[in-house]
Specification:
The chain has 440 residues and is an all-alpha fold. It is built from 20 helices and two strands. The protein is 67% helix and 1% strand. The structure holds heme C (HEC).
Length: 440
Amino acid sequence: MASRLYQWLDSRLKLKSLEHTLLDEPVPGGASWIYVFGSATLFLFILQAVTGMFLALYYAPTPDHAYDSIQYIEHEVWFGWFVRGLHHWGASAVMVAVGLHLLQVYLYGAYKSPREVMWMVGVILFLIMLTFAFTGYLLPWDQTAYWATQVGINMMGTLPIIGGFLVRVLRAGETLGALTLSRFFAIHVLFLPAFMITGVVVHLFILRRVGPAGPWDETLAKQKSETFWPRQVYMDSVVMVGIFLLVASLAYFAPFPLADKANPSDHSFIPVPEWYFLFFYQLLKYIPGSLESMVTWILPAGFLFVLLFLPFLDRNPVRRPAGRPVTILAGVGFLLIVFSLLGVSLKNLYAIPKSDPSVLRGQQLFAQHHCAACHRIHGEGAKVGPDLSFVGDRRPDREWHLRHFSDPQSVSPGSIMPKFTMSDQDKYNLSSYMLSLKKS
Ligand code: HEC
């Protein structure tokens, strides 16, 4: 039955020749697990597209409703929290997949002639991916989203010549507001997918014209060749299933709460960027203030220039890593710097572990003393006093807290916060809890 149907369709649509073009592409040197990252990236992109479509059913891109519509997706929509989780973790997974794909191509020298154009299209796709991440980050319209985007836009403003233009295009006004949000939304769901799909088609078209690069060893590449189907298809599929299970379990087990709704007048909020921008954020901390505005654009611009034109800068025709020490050492050096910066940054973020018993005790004391009657933490509690959701970033000094609990007026003249009498141990525990309240 199925084969009769297939034959009928084949006679109308010429499926056999299509099947041949799609699946019988030769893979020089044979199928390998090292070639899976490109299809892994494509798979994750499709996952983002599908989950994004469902989120768009409920999401409202206006400052008045964006935050509430996400709350609605999280709490009311059937499996909404899961779809949002997939989209959130999928965005991180895409970054990892792209990174590994880039690394493999770099290590194998696969960007070299005749694949220069394919590499350059790839770099542009990577840029589109980063723009996806940047524009998507604002959409939940919580404090983190709002202030991180503010910082991002300000950084772009430091670019010479095009900086001012970029800021106008992105922010669509003097301040970050309703127009910015609808603009980011339109870029995220209309412009970027169109660019992305075009780019992916061109990238794959070139791949089929020049063929995959295969192993760096010429003789090895010539020795053996097999078609894309079945073994490479099998390997790619196994990896896709694995990735889906991983992203799905993250979405299931690792929920990520929204911060408070964006409050444009709360300038005390200190945002922390997504992990894939953290290394850069850490780097900026080491740069003296006078140079900072230069570094924010010179380093990324230089990096992009080198990345984009790599096939023309590295003209050595050898593809074997051992035969290209300069490129390989440069790559390793870059990775070492990025990962050390990321490590330092993460260490600082998690300096006070949340499971610290002193922090847990402090949390109980916070409830016992009814601090929530005046203070709000992540949306819970009254707003008589300051919001304490991220007080640890704002007031990182334990001494200050200890003095403040005993006598608020001594450090904050005119404060209406009552004096609290409790043991020194309890004050210490309560201050541990305060210090742990950080954006992380
Ligand atoms: C009657 C209302 C009230 C109560 C109850 C209260 N606070 Fe406060 N709190 C305030 C006010 C008003 C401020 C701002 C002035 C100041 O810094 O003292 C403040 C400030 C703070 C700050 C500094 C925040 C910042 O960003 O500078 C911390 C930390 C704090 N309170 C913790 C607590 C803890 C812990 C409790 C419970 C043991 C508590 N508060 C109970 C009203 C209150």
